[in-house]
From TrEMBL:
Organism this protein belongs to: Chromobacterium amazonense
Record keywords: Flavoprotein, FMN, Monooxygenase, Oxidoreductase
Protein name: Nitronate monooxygenase
UniProt entry tagged with the keyword Flavoprotein: yes
GO molecular function per UniProt: monooxygenase activity
CDD domains: NPD_like
Gene3D superfamilies given in the database record: Aldolase class I (3.20.20.70)
Pfam family, one: NMO
Presence of keyword Flavoprotein: yes
EC identifiers of the protein: 1.13.12.-
């Protein structure tokens, strides 16, 4: 038997930067990238990023401490800066000295400055070359480049084109996201100039992922074309599973009065002053108010699909890669398989 070199470990600029053994990341996914999944990814040699979107600062602190109980490996904390409370969660991540902070949808210079003071690394999520250049100037250590295929907020350009475009625009290490689900995808991403992949849809379909069993069954039955991409669900271009509920939720943009009504419900839930948010917001910042309302309403729909398996009211964020998935392995099994596939792919290419 020919001895193949071990596929268990693969080092790239990203693995060296983040101190991990495999160029495989789990991106922040609300209600899914929980301490258990994040730790499972770390223990399997990758880097998991805790989703803090639906968490208060106290819950974020508790979640970071829980990850540290479950693993001694590096992990990340994700902050979607446009969401209410995200800056406070980023400050908690700094206080707890999270090894990696991943920010998206905002300016992260202050995050990079604070993280670098204790030796933390910063990963900026970008969807355009312009954002990539700006993130580099703001002190990011690496970029998470999210293509059109991705679940949730992928850009308008596919990974196949976006990754090499950003490779030309920036010298930072790149984690490619959007459409990656196996070893062939990993090798393709490396060939395009990336240094690792983040797999959201694929890792949502693992045993450690808390996605409801009904929803996992639905994903197994869907093909690559069974998604919707709309700006009407949460106010940003967003990819979700094609279901009647998702079609209803993305049929038309939210008007100002329903936005004020929903924003007050969100404000109540988050302990913010209701009148100031609803009436003050309607008069002074109607766009910001609408965005807050959309995020708030979307967050509840996302929770219903993930935690309750409810697809009457719930909406499932999912990427085109759902059509490449036909099982629900453990994270360790998945990563071992991805590395084997990558090794087989390299051997095949070497024979060309
Ligand atoms: C089920 C699910 C939930 C997600 N939730 C969020 C979220 O709450 N916020 C966010 O910015 N991205 C979210 N994402 C997107 C991921 O962070 C990542 O960009 C995406 O999954 C990468 O593309 P892929 O799904 O093709 O792997 C989610 C992805 C999935 C699959």
């Amino acid at each position: 038997m020919v001895n193949q070199p071990s596929a268990a470990i693969m080092h790239t600029a990203i693995t060296r930067l983040l101190g991990i053994e495999r160029p495989l990341l789990c991106p922040g996914m609300s209600y899914i990238a929980t301490p258990e999944l994040v730790a499972a990814v770390g223990n399997a040699g990758g880097l998991g990023i805790l989703a803090t979107g639906p968490l208060t600062p106290d819950q974020t602190r508790a979640a970071i401490r829980r990850i540290r109980e479950l693993t001694d490996k590096p992990f990340g904390v994700g902050c979607t800066l446009m969401m209410p409370g995200a800056a406070d969660n980023a400050r908690v991540a700094q206080e707890e000295q999270a090894p990696v902070i991943n920010y998206s949808l905002g300016k992260g210079d202050w995050i990079a400055e604070a993280a670098h003071r204790y030796g933390g690394k910063v990963l900026a999520t970008v969807v355009t070359e312009k954002h990539a250049v700006s993130a580099e100037k703001c002190g990011a250590d690496a970029l998470l480049v999210t293509g059109h295929e991705a679940a949730a907020h992928g850009g308008s350009v596919t990974s196949l084109v976006l990754v090499p475009a950003i490779r030309r625009a920036s010298s930072l290490p790149i984690v490619a996201a959007g459409g990656f689900a196996g070893g062939e995808g990993l090798i393709a991403a490396l060939a395009l100039g990336a240094d690792a992949v983040a797999m959201g849809t694929r890792l949502a379909m693992t045993r450690e992922s808390p996605v409801h069993a009904n929803t996992k069954d639905m994903v197994l039955q869907r093909g690559v074309a069974d998604t919707l991409y709309s700006k009407n669900f949460d106010g940003l271009w967003c990819r979700m599973m094609d279901t009647p509920a998702a079609r209803r939720a993305s049929r038309k943009p939210l008007g100002l009065m329903p936005a004020a009504f929903r924003a007050s419900a969100v404000a109540r839930r988050m302990g913010m002053p209701v009148l100031k948010v609803a009436i003050g917001g309607m008069l002074s910042q109607p766009q910001a108010l609408r965005q807050l309302a959309l995020f708030g309403a979307a967050t509840e729909s996302i929770r219903l699909a993930i935690q309750d398996g409810d697809h009457e009211k719930g909406v499932q964020l999912i990427g085109q890669a759902q059509g490449l998935i036909d099982d629900v392995p453990t994270v360790a099994e998945l990563f071992a398989r991805v590395m084997d596939e990558a090794q087989a792919c390299r051997s095949r290419l070497a024979q060309l």
